[in-house]
Amino acid sequence: MSEPFYTDKTHVRASFEKAATSYDAAAVLQREVCDRMAERLPYIKFQPTVILDAGSGTGYGATKLRQQYPQAQVIELDLAQAMLQTSRAKQSSGDSLLKKLFKPSSPWQVVGDVERLPLADHSVDMIWSSLTIQWLNLPDTVFAEFLRVLKPAGMLMFSTLGPDTLHELRTAFAGVDNAIHVNQFIDMHDLGDALLRGGFAEPVMDMEKIVLTYQHARDVMADLKAIGAHNVTAGRQRGLMGKQAWQRVIANYETLRSQGRLPLSYEVLYGHAWKNLQQKVSKKTDDGQHIIEFVKKPTI
What we know:
- It is a single chain.
- By secondary structure, the protein is of the alpha/beta class.
- The protein has one domain (about 10-295): Rossmann fold.
- It has helices spanning about 10-20, 25, 30-40, 60-70, 80-95, 95-100, 140-150, 165-175, 190-195, 215-225, 245-255; strands at about 50-55, 75-80, 110, 125-130, 150-160, 200-215, 260-275, 295.
- The chain has an eight-stranded mixed beta sheet with strand order 3-2-1-4-5-7-6-8, sandwiched between helices.
- It starts with 8 loop residues before the first helix and ends with a strand.
């Protein structure tokens, strides 16, 4: 099934291949979200041996995981080979001569699709996925794959973007034409339901809002392009937008200017759940309905 608002995975891959060299300079939000995920790890009493970083990008999250779990094997997996190459180059440049002599092994990296993981069943203890799931159209396939490769009692921790993300851009483009200019994102409750459908236990979801600000609309577009996060929907406009249409977009966006800056909002969703075992039984109501815990964090 295809819908105009569905993401085009071929275009997603191409965007991130092109963005590999510019990504780190513009990925302010991505690093912030990754840091906030990493802050949760010490509170979870869990010691994984093998960790999959699903959608690892240029390796920022993998570095956090190696710091938290120095004895674990961290596998970096990304759809874009150029992202993994950038991560490898950074790790190599940061190694001392002594480390290279006595620990010359390269990082574990795999080019792959999170919806078709090239990993064996029950092969990893933990899956970490920061800001990757939003590039998928339906969560069920990826959650099924995550469950498949997790060992019994394994843990999934992820972040993604909710439907209120980039709402200022939707306002700016509204009425300019009939094309889809902004990616669509999945609601937190739908993700929680998908976790339960997929067989995960004890899912916990929470949300917070992060707002970046810019001086000019062109700076917003430049940042989105630099991280490979521009519009990748099937219904996107294929050619360049005309000058008059673009001027209307800018005028619409200018109506949202506050304290001299243009806002760009991100609804960030966080989730974690466990692969079900007898000791990891989903909580239920008296009538047998599954319980998903939702925690709404204050706006940033």
